[in-house]
Amino acid sequence: MTTSKPAGPRQVPPPAGGAAKPASAYARFIPREELSEFAAWTPGAFGGGADPAGVSSKPQPKAPPRPEPAPAPAAPPEPTAEQWLARIEEARGQGYQQGYRDGLEALEAAKRAFAQQLSAQMAQMVAAFDEQTQGLDARLADTLVQTAVTLARQVVRSEIAQRPELIVQVAEDAIGAVILSARHLRLRLNPKDLPLVELGAADLLKARGVVMQADATLSPGGCIVESDLGQVDARIEQRWTQAAAVFGRSEPLLAESEDSEVGL
CA of 84: how far to CAs of 79, 81, 89, 124, in Å? Predict the structure, then answer.
């Protein structure tokens, strides 16, 4: 097996009849057959510089055209005097409408605030009037009860003084309140009422076997019935206290200064 070596430059003999001259390294012509690769050299091949002659080995792409700048807008014309007056009148009308609307809103807000304040004041006045009315009703009712109790007390005092015989009915009612099975009945009376009861209720006293007893500590018009089963308190003070309690009062029948007026 043989290997082939790449052939070097082929020596070309000088033309016949010519004198042999030493060839320069830069004057020898190289045939195309001896060249395997080549490229045309241009000054712009190194560093990307432009060809000074304007010739390039490759066609350069054309740059897109630059857009022309838009023309500056024309300045608007100055408004005339009539236009200025129209604008001023329009602004004045808009300001009037806005002020009128704001004024109406402020008026409505003031009305609502005034109505709320007036309602609150009226509510306070009604509550105070109702409280005063209730207090007046209570005082009036108390005054009426006090008047009624005072009149009743005067009537009782007058009846006791002018009709002492009423003690007979009081004694009979007290004895009738004791059950029939009770024994050892004793009737205690004021000494002034004792003869009146002995005369007016003699039959009842005899039938029930009641023993009469004078007691100066008892006021005229009242009595106490005692038995083996208990006692019945029919004193005038006790009956008055029960009657006055119905009206929520606790005034005594007679004041200490009035005791001598009715002979107590």
Answer: 6, 5, 9, 59
d(CA 88, CA 86) in angstroms, rounded, equals: 5
Strand partners, 234: 223
Cα 11 from chain centroid (whole Å): 121
The H-or-E segment that residue 181 falls in is none
Cα distances (angstroms) measured from residue 250 to each of 7, 155, 232: 159, 17, 21
Q: What is the pTM (predicted TM-score) of this model?
A: 0.44
Residue pLDDT, tens place only, 88-110: 888 888 888 888 888 989 999 99
Report the amino acid identity of residue 51.
D
- Give dist(CA 218, CA 224) in Å, integer: 9
DSSP state of 58: S
214: closest CA among 191, 233, 195? 191
